[in-house]
Design a protein that fits this description.
Layout (H helix, E strand, L loop, with lengths): L1 E5 L12 H7 L4 E4 L6 H10 L2 E5 L2 H8 L6 E4 L4 H4 L5 E4 L26 H10 L2
Parallel strand pairs: 1-2, 1-3, 3-4, 4-5
Helix pairs in contact: 1-5
Length: 131
Amino acid sequence: MNILIVPGNIQGPKSYPRWEKLMSLLRGHKIKRLDGILKKQGIIDLVNWCDVWVSIDSFLPHFVAYHKLKPGIVLWGTSDPLLFGYQENTNLLKDRKYLREQQFKWWKDEVHNPDAFVDPELIVKEIDKLQ
């Protein structure tokens, strides 16, 4: 299976804290990472290449939805997927108790809470469902 991983801002409040563990669990799959800045067609090509993409709540899920590309798996921490997510994606939220009170407040001022994110094993189970 071809998997596109989109870690996004590795240091920010939306950063998924267990990428290394997830990558080790996905050994045996062909994986590409979308890091840095790509032009529109480069992103489209990567999404078309993969069987599934996995991203934090970032630019990619919005881009993919806008361009009507394939659904993927979105990792949520303190932002509410019911407000900002897309129903065609698999939106993985660990627990609503971690959601920040002011959802429309500028997120970059938030403190990173690694406990707010799902375990990598759950992501792998979702990927396995797609095979």
